[in-house]
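I am still learning, so can you show me any protein sequence you like together with the matching structure tokens, please?
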Amino acid sequence: MPAQIDLAGHWSFRVDALDVGVKEQWFSKKLTDKVVLPGSMATNNKGDDIGVHTPWTGSIFDSSWFSKPEYAKYRRSGNIKVPFWLQPNKYYTGPAWYQKTITIPPAWAGKNIELFIERSHWETTVWADGQAMGTQNSLSTAQIFDLSRLKPGTHTITIRVNNKINDINVGPNSHSITDHTQTNWNGMIGKLFLTVKPKIHISRVDVYPDLKGKKIVTKVWVINSSNTSVPASVKLLASSENKLAEQLQPQTKKLVIGPDSSFFEWSYPMGNAPLLWDEFTPNLYSLKIELNSDSGRHEKRIQFGMKEFGVDGTRFSINGRKTFLRGTLESAIFPLTGYPATDTASWMRIFRIVKSYGLNHVRFHSWCPPEAAFDAADRSGIYLQVECASWANWGTWLGDGLPIDQYLYEESNRIVKAYGNHPSFCILVQGNEPGGKHHVSYLRSFVNYWKAKDPRRVYASGAGWPVIPENDFNNIPQPRIQQWEEGLKSIINKERPGTSFDWGSIISKYTIPTISHEIGQWCVYPDFKEMKKYTGVLQPKNFEIFRDRLKEQGLLHLADSFLLASGKLQVLCYKAEIEAALRTPGFGGFQLLDLHDFPGQGTALVGVLNPFWEDKGYISGTEFSRFCNTVVPLARFPKMVYLNNETLKVPVEISNFGAVPLRNVPAKWEITNGAGQLLFSGRFPTVTIPIGNAINLGMIQQSLQSIAKPSQLKLTVSTGTYQNSWDWFVYPAQLPQPESDILVTQQLDEEAVKKLDSGGKVLLTLKKGHIKANNGGDIAVGFSSIFWNTSWTNGQAPHTLGVLVNPDHAALKYFPTDYHSNYQWWDAMSHSNVVILDSLEKGLQPIIRVIDDWVTARSLGLVFECKAGNGRLIVSSIDLLSGEEDRPEARQLRYSLLKYMQSDVFQPDTEIPVSKIKNL
């Protein structure tokens, strides 16, 4: 007798745009269109063409696309292109109907028959031969319908799927339903089949590992639909594919199964030394539960691990050992299908990449993944944070008795029932950033409910907030270097660069672990080469708009350079974020937003990987994991720029959250110059490094007197096979005075014009705030990359993505630099406005270019040269004079520009009238 009948393949179909199908009883009529399932309407090319009035699911903060003239061509029928997110080939919200003829075999007579839909999106109603079989609305688990009333023979199954937000409003920006990420698709995906079970069968098994007792406690629920008490036997056997695992013996229990349902609890010994599960050794066991009765034999297999994930003071613990969560988000981003993968291989690939970047944790932002993700995480050793498919803040809220209040209890119970045995399932919260007048009291009850119900994981109120006494841990945004709406007042943009700060003062008020919420959010320029990869239902029309804008500005040839230069700055920002977390004593962990790009919310290109989990060419997993790993050497630089009359004093420490303490591991340091030549080196005392962080290795103390030339240096600290490095800079304490034939001025006054008219040379170094708004003065310049994006953040500063320069340009001979921003550029970016170069001369090539926001794609410069009058001029929109005694970078850059102006190679090609310069 077949246990399953696969329903994958062709189904009849009909769109119900007017929502009349129930009233007109389509469940009793033949549907005439065709689709293939598993799949969605979009994968079957069903739905409406995209237009100006498409009823998207998700907030649009910047609505200028609907009105601005520059977007007019993208609003025309046949050329619709939206910048908010990836654009599907078709779009539809509302009910749609699916129908299939099935045949129940004779052997299934009198048995329990179920329809299994692994994931439906989302409210699903089933009819069999016109008779209603029920409605379900889980966004997170399989929807299973009882079809036991069907007798052998041919039947018609009709399914109505409605993806329109109903009374249960989880929030239109929830990643479980929104067009920002997976799209608000309509359909059924994953496994789709009929299955048969005996009248008496196992309905649920929960496995509770007990490491101290070297056993598991099993809780088993049995359904008896025979209406009489029946004697039965249950046999348990746990086994492992690992050859090191002890061979365990089966245990059998006899019992009587009463009518309806029965529950029993049973301890099962796991041997003398059960293999434990964690990120380093993801050992798995399979528990076979066999039920035998007069009704027949029924078997379940449960994958589990001997794992206890908990809290140890302000740390998390795994099997009694302290751990640190290094996490990223997964926001249901699947560009080819528009819905999540349901096969284990796809998720194994994702988690393999996650681990290659030094991470051990994934948070599912306002959604819960399919079974395959848990299975892959189990096998990969990834700690998962799961959320109940809700972002109850935009368009909905908690605690006021709305249907979502009860739904979250029901959905969380469904999630735990379906996935609760997976050892990777370590954290559960209700959702992302909750809101509502009474959300705090609601969430206190929610957390208490789950702490009492299931101790196999830890719980908190929500991702982001609120902090409540009931939390097992806090997930808050304060420990990060850029806050929402902080703009240029953030640590990374306001304070001189250094690596000595941490979050100790923020977390000191808490006695439980803290995870920093959504750190990073640092943007990079679009990679237009990525566009060819979109071969499925979602297309990068947003990238087409951005590419068009860059081409219109005459800058398309710089696209790859913008990507690489902004990418290097992005990595610098992420390194600063992650190292600050690793330096913080007693910290619980961090969650990046994100390791890969977030295609929605106005296009948030925050990943070092693209939406396909591929790198973009400027950093690899090997490089990233130097500063993000189980073991990371750390240096607390008080500053990143020194003079050569100073002594470098840098405390060095290490973070070790590996499997074991590091015993007698040698540690050393080296300082090299830009050519890779070794200048200084030393060793630290050999010590045993325990599990934890803020573990002191020693102090680097080195005189810099021998560094005669301006230098970009690199400090590398090595501990065994682990290395980390930092770029820093040394400039001469004394610089020669510039020759008198060059006028250095902060305004193009009469003296400066006279100098130019006489054929002289002028360095015009403008004060910040002295550029007119329409010439670039209203462009917010900061050191960091753009935070999230300017569309979703209402134009939060900065609006730029760092510098792009030719490091071999003669003007920068005495100001060593790579082609991209590094810490020596912080001073310049903090004391400048940019100039829109085309406001002076179309195609003007600057010495120092600034990369603009991809939405506006203007040609921006900090320093450019030109002929003016009869003379030669360099215009610096960096103030290189004010407060120069405390600005060694400004002094050095000014010196380098002046040396260039004194040389024979200072021969500008472009001529700009003095009046245009004045008009800046």
Notes: Residues 38 and 189 are 4 Å apart (CA to CA).
